[in-house]
Every structure is written in C-alpha cells, then in structure tokens.
Amino acid sequence: MRHFLTLKDFTRDELQEMIDLAIRIKAQTKAGEYVPYLKNQTLAMIFEKSSTRTRVSFETGIYQLGGTGLFLSSRDIQLGRGEPMKDTARVISRMVDMVMIRTFEQSKLEEFARYSRVPVINGLTDSYHPVQLMTDYLTMLEFGKENPVVAYVGDGNNMAHSWLYLAAIMGFELRVATPEGYECDPEVVAEAKKLAERYGRTLILGHDPKEAVKEADVVTTDTWVSMGQEEEKEQRVKDFAGFMVDKDLMALAKDDAIFLHCLPAYRGYEVSEAVFEEHAEEIFTEAENRLHAQKGIMVWLDQHRFDDAEIEN
Ligand code: CP
Ligand code: NVA
After folding, report:
1. Where does the Aspartate/ornithine carbamoyltransferase Asp/Orn-binding domain start and stop, copy by copy (predicted)?
2. N or C: which end of the chain has fewer CB within 10 A?
3. pTM of the entire predicted model
4. Counting ligands in written order, which one lies closest to the CA of residue 128?
C-alpha cells in the first residue's frame, strides 16, 4: 500500500500519473460527468489545525467520486483527549477506506500511517504540504508554465519544503529567497538537492528576493506566520521586512509571470493588495484546483492500495 506523506516518496512518473488523472477527472467534472471512481468509499479527515480549502476540497472531492467524507476535528474525537495516534489509526483504518490528516509534527502522521490499514494522505504538517504542491503544479501547467522558473519568496516553511521536492522531482528551476534565520530545514535541502541531481535540475537558495524573482515565470509566497507560530508574529513581521511581494518586486519577473498563493493570504505582509488582486484569477484557480488535484491523488492511491513496492528516490 502507498501513502501520500511527502512528495519525495514518489517518482516523477508517479506524480505525473496523479496529475494526468486530475486533468482527466477535472474535465469530466466540468462536463457534468461524475464518474464514481471511489464508489461507496469513506474518507476520514482528521484535523488538528484549522482549514477552509483542505476540508472543503477533500469532502467535496470524495463525494463527487461516489464516496463520503467524515470530518473529524481533534477537538471532537478522543485523539484530542490523549488517545494515542497509533490506537486512533488502528480503529479508524478498520472502518474507512482512506484517511487524510492535518497535524503538527510529520512524525505523528508517519506514526498513523505505520499503523493504518488504508492509504493515508498528508493534509499539511509543520514540515510539508504536498497536496497543495500537486495543485500548484497542475495550476502552472494550466497557465502554460510547462518548464517554469519559479521564485519562492518568504518563510522556509512547509510550503517551501514541498516546493523544493516538487521542483527537484519534476525538474524545473526553483529559486528560494528567505530572510536570514528563516531558511529551509538543511536536511530537507540536502534531500532535495540529491533528488535534483538525479532529475537534472538546480535549486537555488538565497536571501535576496530580487535575485530570486528576476525573469521568473512564476512567483509565489506564503504566510510569514504559520499555524502554531502565532506568538512569534511580532518578531517575524520585523524579520521579514523587505520580503513582501509587491508591484516593484513583481515587475522584475517576466511580463507574463503568474503569482500563486496557497491561501489564506495576509495583505500588507507577504503580498500587497495590488499584486493579490491583479493575480486573483490565478490564485483562485489554484484554490479550485485543490479539488481536482486531490481527486487525482485519491484515485491513484486507490489504484495502488495493494502495491507493496517501496520506491527508491
Ligand atoms: N491552502 C490551504 O491548505 O488552505 P486551508 O488551510 O484553508 O486548508
Ligand atoms: N504555512 C502555512 C500554510 C497554510 C496553508 C501554515 O502551515 O499555516
């Protein structure tokens, strides 16, 4: 069985298969054709953090595929009162067909997956947000960015880490600019660089947003204060001075560059109101694509639920 815990657990061909499924299912959905790929299946969705997009897209997605979604906030289930993750996994995975989890440490997600009888999907952890990046890849393709130069400006967080793996495996140029002290996790960088070598691309990491954005095809950023970091807000806002994606910074990118944001967006911090509104079509297509990309991932995992092959990546 295969789980979807990080992008580095998959080859380029496998990620491409998921994207191809997403493209096909999106076209079918847009034509009003709801193919029940996951008929009668139940997806449990465990949330230890807030969500708008992840919840709505997974719940709607499983429904459109012929199944049912179960929203399980950790405030309401015994997990929130201290029932161990491994027991929660052994109970829930005997009753449902697939599980999505949004939690804090990646190790908690991995523990759940170890004890689960069904495929587990990462719906965001402190370390990664892989379903978002599959969505962003699909969105770039739709906007004609086939072999893009992507600039990520901001925090070296879960989004940045997943961008590193996506670029390394799919083979496009990624330039990451973070403030000093907010760099990506060195272990993730080392892993991503190894993958990039195998797949033939370079990853560029630095501290200068202008250098990163120059002639880029895609510019992206994320909140400076991720969920769980609320108390650091004041310090972070000071430390991220000069990292807002505003008109002056966007002007350095290619004329037809797109701007992506996983949302929620904080105007006046990581992005200016003007840049956000000018690129609203791309941003909200990206948000909608959560629905389609995740359907591709769920159907792929269902098709591989009896695989025991561990891939070498
Ligand atoms: N981008 C994203 O994951 O949004 P939510 O936190 O609303 O799910
Ligand atoms: N880095 C953000 C992403 C939100 C979708 C967070 O973890 O809160």
Report:
1. 150-301
2. N
3. 0.97
4. 2
* CA 49 to ligand 1: nearest atom: 6
Is the CB–ligand 2 distance for residue 159 below 6 Å?
yes
- Say whether 305 is catalytic: no
Report how far apart, in Å, the C-alpha atoms of 208 and of each of 25, 243, 254 are. 40, 9, 17
Which strand (E) or helix (H) includes residue 302?
helix 280-303
Nearest ligand, measured from the Cα of 161: 2
218-221/203-206 β-pairing = unpaired
The residue length of the chain stands at 313
Two structure tokens written together for 119: 């495929």
As a whole number, mean pLDDT of residues 245-254 equals 98
Confidence of residue 201 (pLDDT cuts 50, 70, 90): confident
Q: 52 CB under 6 A from ligand 1?
A: yes
Residue 309 confidence (pLDDT) above 70 = no
Active-site residue flag, 132 = yes
Show Cβ contacts of residue 185 under 8 Å, excluding neighbours closer than 6 positions. Answer: 127, 156, 161
Which one, of 166, 160, 171, 175, lies nearest residue 18 by Cα?
166
Cα-to-centroid distance, 221 and ligand 2 (Å): 11
Rounded distance between C-alpha atoms, residue 174 and residue 169, angstroms: 11
Q: How far is CA 30 from the centre of its chain?
A: 23
Query: 264 C-alpha vs ligand 1 centroid, how far in Å?
Result: 7
Which pLDDT score is estimated for 311? 59
Look at ligand 2, atom 8, and give the residue with the nearest C-alpha.
226
Closest by Cα among 46, 54, 166 to 104: 46
Report how far apart, in Å, the C-alpha atoms of 277 and of each of 114, 214, 245 are.
43, 21, 12
Q: Which pLDDT belongs to residue 310?
A: 58
Ligand 1, atom 6: closest residue by C-alpha:
51
* Adjacent-strand bridge partners of 151: 175, 219
Mean pLDDT score, 120-148: 98
CA 90 – CA 164 distance, rounded (Å): 32
Q: Spell out the domains of the chain, with CATH numbers in brackets.
A: 7-128+290-303 (3.40.50.1370), 132-287 (3.40.50.1370)
